[in-house]
Every structure is written in structure tokens, then in C-alpha cells.
Amino acid sequence: xxxxxxxxxxxxxxxxxxxxxxxxxxxxxxxxxxxxxxxxxxxxxxxxxxxxxxxxxxxxxxxxxxxxxxxxxxxxxxxxxxxxxxxxxxxxxxxxxxxxxxxxxxxxxxxxxxxxxx
Length: 118
Hints:
Elements: E1 12-18, E2 33-35, H1 44-47, E3 52-58, H2 59-65, H3 67-74, E4 84-88, H4 91-101, H5 113-117
Parallel strand pairs: 1-4, 2-3
Antiparallel strand pairs: 1-3
Helix pairs in contact: 2-3
């Protein structure tokens, strides 16, 4: 089921996604900015290998769909009042999870099950 929730429908937050496992020798270190508005068009195979990606996302959707983001963006963490937050996660797992939160199907495999579960 595709999501029609636009980042402009509510407050937008920028997720500075940093892959702690990524090689610092990535051939393309150009900053890339994507939006959850276009989540169904994300090319996971090319995005998953980038060390850093900035993602524009609807703050309310993140809070409503994820206890992690609810705690981070509504709780007593200092990030709750920021328009931009840093997240250090495996990039492929993070992108898959965000796609799911914004209405795309989640493809579970033996390779991604544990990282997504964690």
C-alpha cells in the first residue's frame, strides 16, 4: 500500500543517516538528499552503499509509526526539539525500515532479518 503522506503535511525533520559500517573510501562521497515523499522511487541498491544520506521525513509519521522515533522526537532526548537529527544505523536496514513506515512493503530475507529485528 503506497503512502500519500507528504512531508509538507506536517513538521519536517531531516534525518542525517550515517552508516557506521560504511567504508570511508566510498567512490561517491557527494551529499545526497532524498525525501520520504518519493519513498516508492528509492533505489535501495544504490542508496544502501552510501556512507551518509540526508532524508526529509514527516516528523508526525515517524512518531506515530515507530516507538524508536517517538522516544527520540517526543521524549526527553535533546533531539526532540531539533529540526535535524543524526542516526547511526546500518544504511540498508534503516532505508528498508523507513520505506515500511511510509507505506511500502518490507522484503524480509535471511540476510536482512536480524539487522531489521534489532
